[in-house]
Amino acid sequence: MTLDELISEEVQKLSALKIYKNGLMQQLFPHEGEAVPKLRLSKYLKADDWKKRKVSDLLTRSTKPVDVEVEAAYREIGIRSHGKGIFHKGAVRGKSLGDKRVFWVEPSALVVNIVFAWEQAIAVTSKAEKGMIASHRFPMYKEKVGKCDVNFIKYFFLTKKGKELLGVASPGGAGRNKTLGQKSFESLEFFTPDCVEEQAEIARCLLSVDETIAIQTERIDALRSQRKGLMQHLFPVLKEAQE
Predict the structure, then answer these.
(1) pLDDT in tens, 138-153
(2) Residue 154 belongs to domain spanning
(3) Is the pTM of this model over 0.85?
């Protein structure tokens, strides 16, 4: 098998994983007009139907303003659309932030990009963001104790129904005119199980698939880097032969 053939095979595996995840999400969350998902974890088969709850019943807004020091270094976060996670911007001095309102990033918080929420620019923060900051365009929400699992909430908003609701809370035209109304977001209602552990198990199931996808993506990137290195090594030899 050639390197190109191996890369093609691994890309197909990645595509299959993404299709599997999409199908799994459709099974783990209720369809329109239903109060339970098609696929329910065995230990919860006899549990009560899921109930509609507002975002404000499950999460609480968290704000820790940064008292910016002009000579201190800060790193901001950004959020990719389509549920592709958080990225870290380069470090900048406080003076370059100007009058921008910024807040300390909280760990294990649901964070939304209000400009592209309608494109599912939503994620959960981790220890990797410790000490970083976010602008006012990235509101953060923490779990209300005993009410929800924050990763479950994230995955709900990555479903078709979740995207629809984010669009409802983001009125306006296309692009930057479709800004998420934070009060509207907090008023959104959707079905969740009473048991927080059931929410957590659903989230862990999907997180496991995401980890497998990440590993497969890294494998493909490594193979492509290897191919690039081989090509760069080959072409100078060809050039020398021509000379």
Answers:
(1) 999 999 999 999 999 9
(2) 53-192
(3) yes
